[in-house]
Amino acid sequence: MRTVAVVGAALSGLYAARELRDQGFGGRLVIIGDEDHPLYDRPPLSKDFLTGRVDEERLALCDAEERAALDAEWLLGVRARGLDAPGRSVLLDDGRAVHADGVVIATGASARRLPGRGLAGVHTLRTLDDARALRADLTRGTRRVVVIGGGFIGAETASACAALGHAVTVVEAAPLPLVPQLGAEMAAVCAGLHRHAGTALVTGASVAALHGTDAVTAVALRNGRILPADVVVVGIGAVPNTGWLAGSPLVVDDGVRCDHGCVTSLPHVVAVGDVARVDGTRAEHWTSATEQPRAAVANLLAGKTVRSAGTVPYFWSDQYGARIQFAGRRREGDTVHITEGGVVDGAPGADGLLARYRRDGRTTAVLAVDRPRPFARARRELLRAAERATRAVVRDPGPGCDSCPAPPRRCIRSCARWAVRACRRARRRSRRTARAVLLGTDTTPCRWFQTCRVTHTSSTPQVATTVPATLPSTIGNASHEPASVHRKATIAMISVTATTSTARTAAVRTGSGSRRRRAGSSVHNGR
């Protein structure tokens, strides 16, 4: 791979460029961005930048020294208008074409807008230019601000406007803000932050129209209510920037559809950040934009999916002087319990709170308000649980793989040794009771032992190993196509049962006449 084009010069694009260099890519690197500004961080735009506590210089994501170290070609202020998959090129709106062996799509998302003609005083908040325009409006004396949408952007903007002394009203179409993310019970608690700060919260109401001739003067709701307004901020979500991919072979469905490793339907094209729908989910979080590029770049350089981008979701939000942190995956039906702190008058107390979401006796997510240390511990627990779950399904092709130059006989021997080691590791991890099941091959040649699951039972400890009954049809050459059993190179199914005091294992290799056992073990051979 000689040239890689990163389409999108924001957070995820920068992290993808960093990963390309960190993972050894030394070829030509082209970064394409539709904004003229140097790379900047977006989360402060709805918080400290609006209130004036942060200036534009502190928004920078990288300095001149790092840009030089990346050794990249920067094409800023130009949009991508198409992807020529057969020609392996990214087409630009100025008529140029960037030829690339690999492409990282990091075009992010754009703020969703209300239909109708534009009026002065109506803003969205997604880019630096958006934040500049809104901040200029907010500095013209005391204003009546209506925020449409009670999500994170809307709540943070309302918080900043209230801190500046403006009269703020938040309009939310749902019965409560943030219900999809936090659930009804904790969403009601976080909604109390608005009320305690003096912000009016109107829920269960949708916008019918904006009134005004040249500038907005009021917001009309469908229930007939009229809200006077000098400034309106529309925070009703974002739309992934995928329009430029029309006509390409990529599947677009609320983002660019990818597998669990951020790889699209074209192996030389990966997608990261807000534009990527990874394994069926599109996440608009800072942590997703920074963590996905590592797996995506590894898979891009490998030409196939070799690493998963799965992680424990995490996001935070600063509202009315309180920091809200959430980690995990909440689903309908989860129960939630406040384990630290409490609720006072419908809002988090002065010492904050920590709430855990549980399902089937285990913690699935955790929410904290002004409890950073307990939250950090709870998040580490979630990460460790996710790592244990990942290790329970060990996807390791062993020394033999589809690119292995060794003869199949040697490859099979290596895989057999790997299987026995996996059994022993599983037994050590579960000293009292364990069952390790090694399942065999799929359609990938030579991946004989792909999965290891360790489960705990209350019965006698046992280690059962199942080895696939398909082996290469040719022995002594480089063919790795699975076929019928070859008599001279058959790995038998091993089933070992141990007593409650001692777990014993055995490895048997038949066909060559050799047999090895540990003392006291019972071995059953099968084909």
Comma- or semicolon-separated keywords:
alpha/beta, 10 helices, five-stranded parallel beta sheet, 527 residues, 23% helix
Tell me what you see in this structure.
This protein has about 525 residues and is of the alpha/beta class. The strands form ten sheets. Strands 3-2-1-7-19 form a five-stranded parallel beta sheet, with helices on one face. Strand 13 (about 205-210) and strand 14 form a beta hairpin. It is globular and about 60 Å long. It starts with a strand and ends in a 17-residue tail after the last strand. Residues about 395-420 and about 425-525 have low confidence and may be disordered.
Main β-sheet: number of strands, strand sense, barrel status?
5 strands, parallel
Uncertain segments are 393-420, 426-527
Report strand order across the widest sheet.
3-2-1-7-19
Number of helices: 10
Report the span from N to C terminus. Answer: 45 Å
User: Cα-atom Rg, whole angstroms?
Assistant: 28 Å
Number of DSSP strand runs: 33
What characteristic shape results from the CA principal axes? globular
Structural class: alpha/beta
Average predicted local confidence, pLDDT: 79
Strand content: 25-35%
Portion of residues within helices: 10-25%
Quick gist of this model?
The chain contains ten helices and 33 strands. The protein is of the alpha/beta class.
